Amino acid sequence: MKTICICGGGALGLVIASVLSETLQLTVHMLSAHPQKWSHTIETVDNEGKIYQGTLDIISSNPEDVIPQSDIILLCLPGFLIEKTLQQIKPYVTNQAIGGVVSSTGFFFRAHEIFDKNTSLFGFQRVPYIARVEEYGHRAALLGYKKQLYMACENLDPVFVEQWSEWLDTPISLLQSYLEASLSNSNPLLHPARLYGLWHNWNGQTYPEQELFYANWDKYSSEIYIAMDNEFQQLCKRLNVSIQSVLDYYESADAESLTRKLNSIEAFKTILAPMTRTEEGWLPDFKSRYFTEDFPFGLQLIKDLAVKYQVGTPTIDIVLAWGKKYI
Known about the structure:
- By secondary structure, the chain is an alpha/beta fold.
- Strands 5-2-1-6-7-8-11-12 form an eight-stranded mixed beta sheet, with helices on both faces. A four-stranded mixed beta sheet has the order 4-3-10-9, with helices on one face.
- Helix 4 links the parallel strand 7 and strand 8.
- Helix 7 crosses helix 12.
- The radius of gyration is 20 Å and the shape is globular.
- The termini are far apart.
């Protein structure tokens, strides 16, 4: 029986731990900065009411307690914690496979800097699930499954991908390069485009209610998203990397059809825009991960590569400058 260590206790970490522990009876360890807030029995409920009851074998904030006896290490962390966590676990890594639940915030770039070239690495292009925490360290909601996943691997047998496909009960295709997983037009473009669409003219005013992020997605946000993706595709072309365009991925032809598509995705309908409530009303939450993750660790990565390879990104520049102004 394999042992997997989940690093990071957010929604994805809890959901993946629940699924792997119950359905496959893998031994699951949890490396968390807040082990005292965790229960050894965790629960995930999906969008159709299916319950995954998971069990965590060891919960610790000390890598020495959970890394040496693990076969696989999976980082389910925001971008700003990836480098720090890789440095923390490095003294205890021998021949384990180390992966990132999403690669678009720099996982492979940081891992290449910290570990030697023979280290076994893997990373998902997009997250396996749409998930939300209901009670930290105890329960999560699985709002949606993915029909297809993509993974990049280094120094691993292709059987490793087949294994993950079986574990997650989802087809997973092996990518040709870590760049295909690291460069994403999902969250690093999607979230900033919508945030810019919502609040690019914000001047400090409050709002009477919290905005729906996708259900009220508008045409202007789609236009920004498509323009950013067009620039992103030029970078991919320069790097000889093939990543499906936003319009193709969402089976859309233009901004209007993309808007209708994003409005209609059932798993997205209840997702709210990042906002905080005050006595006067609702305000944009510039401390949310939509800002602190997707601008400096997602969109900035794309911009840095565009500069390096001399690819023009006028729309990305505008949106990135706007977001960085608030973070």
